[in-house]
């Protein structure tokens, strides 16, 4: 099976449960980075922050390169993609488990794997790895394994904030 070539010009958007990270790559190098922390922000404020970040990215040429969106929060993905298209982005691709990834999926239920985890493993491949472990610490901590060019699975654990809150709620003497 032929693998897709990694783009050297790309606007990558990672939409997590508690943050949005967007990075503009030009000629394979980072040209801009925007991070929005969504925890506790009202929807209107989050939209205004995203529009400001998007305008800044557009000023650096994000509208002229393909955009690749990977997200685990469907409602946020929907409105963020709509805002990107409204701002003039014509080539916006939302990643899915059934997309052609630069590695084989060697798990029983590929559709059940979050696209964030697949994107992390794609990052290993982009760095030239055929083997490795990708760890992402956010709302959840994911640990994903690439073995001989194949995604073989991993773990999903509570993130540090979730774990601290759970310990506080279930252990009488532990402060948050």
Describe this entry's structure for a reader:
The protein has 176 residues and is of the alpha/beta class. The protein is 30% helix and 32% strand. The strands form 2 sheets. The chain has a 5-stranded mixed β-sheet. The protein has a 4-stranded mixed β-sheet with strand order 6-9-8-7. A hairpin with a 2-residue loop joins strand 7 and strand 8. The longest helix has 17 residues, at 43-59. The protein is globular and about 55 Å long. The termini are far apart. 23% of the residues are buried.
Set down the secondary structure blueprint.
Layout: E1 10-15, E2 19-26, E3 29-37, H1 43-59, E4 67-71, H2 74-86, E5 92-94, E6 104-105, H3 115-126, E7 132-137, E8 140-147, E9 150-158, H4 160-170
Parallel strand pairs: 1-4, 4-5, 6-9
Antiparallel strand pairs: 1-2, 2-3, 7-8, 8-9
